[in-house]
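Page 47, continued from p. 46.
Same chain as before, 473 aa.
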Amino acid sequence: MLFNSIEFLIFFPIVTLLFYLLPHKFRWFLLLAASCFFYMWFIPKYILILLITIVIDYLAGILIFKWKDSPSKKKTCLIVSIISTCSVLFIFKYLNFCSANLVALAQHFGWAHPQQVLNIALPIGLSFHTFQSLSYVIEVYRGHQKAERHFGYYALYVMFYPQLVTGPIERPQNLLTQLHREKKLQYDNIANGLRLILFGLFLKMVVADNLGTYVDQIYENPHAFSSGDILLGMVFYSFQIYGDFFGYSSIALGCALAMGFTLIDNFKTPYLSDSIQEFWRRWHISLSTWFRDYLYIPLGGNRVSIPRWALNTLIVFTVCGIWHGANWTFMIWGFAYGVLLCLERPLRSLHIFDKISSKSGKSILKGLNILKTFIIVTLLWSIFRAPSFDSLHQLFSALSHNFSLPAQLHVNSIVWIALAFFIMIDLLIRRSRFDVWCGQQKSAVRWTIYALMIFAIIVFSSVQQYPFIYFQF
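Result:
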């Protein structure tokens, strides 16, 4: 079920109302049933895939906790759980990709290798709930979380509908603990939750989807556009993916908050970052911290020699790229970030700009660094957006040869206004969150913002309804 659908506008208030009407001891069942219904709205049979990972890691958690005094048994159980859960992800997301590459390799060397293709669709959000399930098992193994004996509560932890499909990826210490606590109806939770939902719908339906119309034109036929058009399309995609994913995360946080649950913030004004390292601390926070805690630190993190640290960084970001999709473009995208982070560390250690003492000088330098980071991120988003290396080559070929073409991309003025409004809000909430910032404004300001967003959603939503970009992951 899409957040930006009529069905969800019916589903959300009914579930929230029933949640508060029911006694606490029955709420887990309501939320689990609602989450199953929400997920089955897409492809009903794929809930069985989700059930497999839930059962595997539920049993693994119990066994790991039972054998907490037997390191070898505990570790064996952890390894079996990780392999089993990741195997499900591999079969549905990467098997066809690996098979196609083996066929290409065999053909290169003249070997016979029939291609095995599974005619199945990737279950929505499989990578997200796989990682959430794995975080539970790892935290139980580390002794940071007790094994959950109640199967219903554990299933709800993995399937909690607001963040089931596209995150944020929650840790058991946060979400599972909250699921057990009784929630009381509070005005602030309802008000802030609705603000986040409204904000998220505006970002998705008015900003991201309208920008997507122009981005698609550029990437489908770049040679038909001038270099300026292509650059504008690349910038538009930076804001499209940000508005799309930030919008989903805001709605997810809002739906959860309306019932009293607090989820992790997934974005903190990432395009105001003055370095690649800072960008990844502000972008898709639940995923970047997952890789930090469960891959980067176990590999040694930065407590190792410089060459080993560089290798750790490259491994983590290459895996991050693969996590996003079974395509070489994603792998290169992740690897490129790893390389950039490896280059940033020695440059920062030189302290070249430390001698700048004036406040204005530091501000100018910070602004330039923010611009530099945004340009780099935008260029890398083009790799992320391109469906293949051939289309990426066409994009950059057109970019470097189409200087003489006149501008063909005629952008509706509404798009510029919506984008400007989004950027202004992003600047205003750089040290806060939209619901908190909005709640601090005077009543007239708040209601003006609400009215403008509701009006824009009703009148200026894109004719073409795009699926949320991160659904494919």
